[in-house]
Design brief:
There is one protein chain. With 229 residues, this protein is α/β, with parallel strands linked by helices. Helix content is 44%, strand content 10%. Helix 1 packs across helix 4. The two termini are 21 Å apart.
């Protein structure tokens, strides 16, 4: 297709570029145990695409302890979780880039399109450096650059603005429901990675199924349908 129809492609980080969800789980579980709350990996699914403080609130609610701590104490707890998480990140290498992602990024760059990253993680730059992808993205938006977390569209709209891209002519790739909602609220074309993301405009089960020719073809169909409306 004519790539001039597309202004930019914006990726989520966790679950799309690499999978640090398990590291997040281990860090949250360690913190939760310190306040006598037990969480499992099923519960951890609820934390995908959610900001650090919002994740902490969900965990405290799970243990019915949401009213037991001051805001300052919660901020300290969230920072302690981050310290646990950063220790786990030391094990991350380029081998942890998810299957198909390098090929996808190469194809998009070959088409001459800018790519961005929209991650609620405050550790996005640390993760990209560990993966040796720090120079790959034309612009990175993390939690430090936005006021509202996903599912609010701010993070994707910010990425589009910095890339001089029209959201209505841009593609977002996500693995979490909150992220898909954020993309859709931005009026972007939503690519979902996961078997439950039915709000996506195009969906695959895993990253190794992401193919630029297919994605761009599906995007073209989406554009044509919108133009008819």
């Amino acid at each position: 297709m004519d790539e001039k129809l597309i202004d930019a492609v914006i990726f989520d980080l966790d679950g799309v570029i690499t999978d640090t969800a398990h590291y997040h789980f281990l860090a949250w579980r360690e913190l939760a145990r310190e306040v006598d709350i037990d969480i499992d990996e099923v519960f951890n699914e609820r934390l995908k695409g959610v900001s650090r403080m919002a994740s902490l609130e969900l965990i405290l609610q799970e243990g019915n302890r949401q009213n037991d701590f001051t805001l300052r104490e919660k901020e300290t707890m969230a920072e302690k979780k981050n310290q646990h998480y950063c220790q786990f990140l030391k094990h991350l290498t380029p081998q942890d880039i998810l299957p198909g992602i390098v090929e996808l990024i190469t194809a998009i760059k070959s088409a001459g399109l800018p790519i961005g990253l929209a991650s609620v993680s405050r550790n996005a730059s640390t993760v990209l450096k560990a993966l040796q992808l720090e120079d790959t993205f034309d612009y990175v938006v993390d939690a430090s650059k936005v006021k509202k977390s996903k599912p609010d569209p701010e993070i994707f709209l910010t990425a589009c603005k910095q890339l001089s891209a029209d959201p209505k002519r841009s593609i977002g790739i996500e693995d979490a429901s909150a992220g898909i909602d954020s993309i859709k609220a931005s009026d972007m074309f939503a690519v979902g990675v996961g078997n439950t993301l039915f709000k996506s405009d195009y969906r695959v089960d895993a990253t190794n199924e992401l193919n630029w020719e297919v994605i761009s073809a599906e995007y073209k169909k989406w554009i044509e349908i919108k133009s008819v409306r």
